[in-house]
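Box 4.2: Ligand-aware structure prediction
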Amino acid sequence: MKYNNSPIGIFDSGLGGLTVFKEVRKILPYEDLIYFGDTARVPYGNKSKETILRYSMEISKFLISKGVKIVVAACNTSSSLALDGLRKEESVPIFGVIEPGAKKAVEVSSGGNIAVIGTSATIKSRAYSRVIYEEINVLKGNGGYKFKNDFKVIEKACPLLVPFVEEGFLNEEITKKIINYYLNPVICEKPSCLVLGCTHYPILKDLILEEVGQDMQIIDSGIETAKAVKCFLEKNGMLKDGATKGSELFFVSDDLEKFKELGERFLGRKIENVSIVNQFL
Ligand code: DGL
């Protein structure tokens, strides 16, 4: 049996990727994890492709310099716009969150429309719909096609939700109103499932369910990505050897104290071992 004891690198534009980190930790308890949150340059969701690619490359190189065996771009915006560029450049396998989330949506959909919500950059890139249509074509090829003739992917940018979560407005009336404003037109298209295509949205899952109805199937790309990472490590003999609790290291590019304080909200527990890295600024 082959093993690989190097850590897994996970990065995000800021704190949001901790929702993905949490899922990876849940299903890979023995793996050593290194997280980088680009808190100095967040948000990525309203930036250009060139800038997002440059930031993502700098961070991936940093993580690789720490000896990681794979890099997970937990950020939906980076995954939408920088993944191909990263895969061309970097020496370790690079994972994104779009493909696992999109594939799960096609799998669970009853054949009705699929809705995706995310940052402006993610939605503009159409990264989710690209993978969804590719997957549907695969189904067509092997006879498993189930989608209605007028099937469509409904993509909706919800840019205000990130700052609301960052400010801790998790259960306020104003947050409910904004969710209603964004999701009401989406519900009118009668989606069969809804993809949370942004790291911050799982934190608002209960409010989102209140808006779209409790029986809506919600796809959390972070959960699907964690499963895909586990599967890849198993298949390639890259899991850590032994059953000792995995270590955790966190790096941020600004405001370590704020990261610790808000990060607890994402992770649901205290965050230790955080260091500042300002080499990119
Ligand atoms: N992490 C980003 C994402 O998942 C949201 C925050 C940002 O705009 O940077 O798209």
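In the box above, the bound molecule is D-glutamic acid. The first helix runs from residue 18 to 27.
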